[in-house]
Amino acid sequence: MEHKKLVPFPEDFLWGSASAAYQVEGAMEEDGKGLSVWDEFVKIPGKTFKETTGEVAVDHYHRYKEDVQLMAEQGLKAYRFSVAWSRVIPDGHGEVNEAGLQFYENLIDELLAHNIEPIVTLYHWDIPQALQDKYKGWESRQVIEDFTRYSTILFERFNGKVNYWVTLNEQNVFTSHGYMMGSHPPGVKDPKRFYEANHIANLANASVIKAFRELEIKGKIGPSFAYGPTYALDSKPENQLAADNNETFNAHFWMDVYVFGKYPKLAMKWLEENNLAPTIEEGDYALLAEGKPDFMGLNYYRSSTVEHNPLDGVSEGKMNTTGEKGSTEAGGVPGLYKGTDNPFVEKTNWDWDIDPTGLRIGMRRIDSRYELPILITENGLGEYDTLEEDGSIHDTYRIDYLKAHVKAIQETISDGVEVLGYCTWSYTDLLSWLNGYQKRYGFVYVDREENDEKELKRYKKDSYHWYKKVIENNGVTD
Ligand code: BG6
C-alpha cells in the first residue's frame, strides 16, 4: 500500500529515547541499594561477554544531570527509564529505602524541568536477589503481591508527575532467557518452569494494572513487548504454517493474555499435550481480565523468518554475543518452526535482520488484532562505533537505520494506526546485557571499554545531531 501523501506525525508525538537501570546506573550498592539478580548473575564466569558487569555501567546514577542536560539540548520530548526495584525496596518486600526513591524523584524532576516527559518502566529484569533467594522470584506467587506493593509505592509517589508507565519490559525475553535458555538469571533451562514463571509474571502484570486503576492513578499504563513480525521462508504451505506457529507461540501467547486475558487456544492445546501447561488456579482468569493495558508498548529491532521444522528437527540455537558476523546458529521448536535466513534483508554485525518494513507490518498486525494505540518503547541499532581524535563519531549506519524506521512509522500512521511515540534505544551507550559495552546503541557515546571504565566521558554522535533535527521538524528526516 503506497500513500500519495503521508500523514504528518501528530503534534504531540513523543520523540523519545530509552534506557534501563542495570544498563546505565552503576552505583550497585550505593545509598542503601540491595543487590538484584543481575548483580549476582554476571559474577558467574562465562555468562557475559568478557565478564562485563553493570557495577559501574555508564555511571548515570551520578551523572544523570549531565545526561538530562544533553537530552534537553537535543530537544528530546520523552525519556524512558526503569526503576531498580532493589534501590527502592532493597530486599524486595520489606522496608522502603527513601534514598532510592529520592534518586528517581530527582531524575523525574530534572526531566520535567526541561519539559521532557518521563516514561517509567517498573521492571526491566532486575528482581531483588533477596526475593530470588527467599522464594525463587518469578516462580512463586508471592511475587505478585510484592511486585504490586512496589509498583503501588511508585504510583503513589509519582502520581501527577508521570503520565506513562510501563509494567514489565519484554516479559517474553526475560522469562525465556531466564528459564528456557539459561542465559539470563536465574540461569534455568526447564520449559516447564518457564511456562509456570511466565504465568505468574502475567498475573503480576495484571495485578499491577488493576491496582493502577483502583488507585485512580493519572496517565496510561501498558507492558513493553519484544515483537517483530514472522515471515515464512516462502509460499510453501508448510513454511507458512511454521510462520503461523511462530506468531502464535512467540507473540499472541503474550499479547493475547495482556489484552484478552487468555492464552491462544492452539498454544494451550499444544502445551497440554506436551505436559507443559502452566498451573491455572481459580481466579487467575478473572485477574488477567482486569489487566487490560491502555497501550501496547513495542520494542522492535528486527523481523524473523522461519520454515518447517520436523518433530526430530532442531531446537537450541546459538546466539551471537561477540559481534562476529555470521556466528549465530538458528534454533527452533521441533514440530512447530525453525529460524532461517531472510535473503532480502541486510544484517548487523550481531546478525540481527535490518527491516524497517517489518516495523510497519508488526504495528499493523498489533493494531488489527488488539485495537490499542502503540507506544514504540525501543528501536535501535547495536553497532561498533569509532571515537575520532576530534571527539566526533560518524555513525551514518545508525542514522540510516533510524531514518528508515521513522519513515516506516509515518507510513504506518498514514495506514491509520495510532502511534503515541517513538523511543529509540538507547540514549547514551550502555551495557548490552550479554554483549558487553562494544555493542553500542546510543546517541551519546560513552568512552569506556569492557574492562576499562576510563573517564566515562560523553560525546555527541552524528546521530545525536540528526535526531535533534528530526524532533525540531516533527519527523522530517532529511
Ligand atoms: C531489548 C532490551 O531486548 O533489547 C534492552 O529491552 C536491550 O534492555 C535491547 O539492551 C538490545 O538488546 P541487546 O542484547 O543488543 O542489548
TrEMBL record:
Protein family membership: Belongs to the glycosyl hydrolase 1 family.
Name under which the protein is recorded: 6-phospho-beta-glucosidase
Alphabetically ordered keywords of this record: Glycosidase, Hydrolase
SUPFAM superfamilies xref list: (Trans)glycosidases
Gene Ontology terms: biological process: carbohydrate catabolic process
GO molecular function, one term: beta-glucosidase activity
Stored PANTHER family: ARYL-PHOSPHO-BETA-D-GLUCOSIDASE BGLC, GLYCOSYL HYDROLASE
Active site: E378
Gene Ontology cellular-component terms listed: cytosol
